[in-house]
Amino acid sequence: MTHQDAAAPASPAMPESISLDGGITVRGLTEVAELEAACRLYREVFAYSGEDQGINARLLKNLLTYGGTVIGALDAAGDLRGMAFGWTAVETDPEDPHVYHFSQAAVVSADLQGQGVGRALKTVQAAVAHRQGSSRMRWTYNPMISRNAHFNLDVLGAQGRWFTRDALAGPGTDRITVEWRLGEKSTAPHQATRDQRSASEDDFEAGLAAHPLTVAGEIRADAESTALAVPTQQPTDPTVIELLRTRFHEIFTEGFVAVSCRRVDEDLAVYRFTRRA
What we know:
Layout: H1 3-6, E1 17-20, E2 24-28, H2 32-46, H3 57-65, E3 69-74, E4 80-91, E5 98-108, H4 117-131, E6 136-141, H5 146-155, E7 159-164, E8 175-181, H6 191-196, H7 199-210, E9 219-221, E10 225-231, H8 238-253, E11 256-263, E12 268-275
Parallel strand pairs: 5-6
Antiparallel strand pairs: 1-2, 2-3, 3-4, 4-5, 6-8, 7-8, 9-10, 10-12, 11-12
């Protein structure tokens, strides 16, 4: 089985509604008032103030009508505390044509972050997308933010498949696009990967444990695996940023995919990549 197949997939049995501790319910949004609240929350969480930085209820309503998703997390009082939205897209690569769902954004109120709400939003969104005919889900994240990388790769079990410089047409907008397979047998994140690792990958992991990376930008690689050290906090030093941009570009160009990003100490996290199947 390839690493692509081994990535923890979303299960076909995933529910389209999830109840969490604290009275939080995650489900699809349908009412206009809910969609308007989603637009306000989106701007609030991202601290957007510009006229060109928001979304509106008409857009979200059209997404719901024409194959998109709008998912919300509501508290016991009915107030919206998290939201995610996306749309159906088509991969036209003749070697791998398929329908997928692009998740544009998932936002959670600051006081609820780190409590499983983001994971529930993605899970419900994936379930709805699969029912609508998508076999995979994609979204992007800033590779310089290690906690987001850990959530996407280690918690959800998606794979980072593509790296794009200046993805949003401006400096500081490099993105990794992840892919999450839907509708296959569910596994715990990385359980399949651990079970199917080759001896060379085990040796690579053992080497990292014995001689860990210690500086942001430091890299270690063999024929099948690569590791890259990054700061735990988003870097601000232009030299470090440019070095990491170059590292990401080289690693993905050489045919690797991101499968993990784990914190190793207070200052450093380590990405792990395996060769694309």
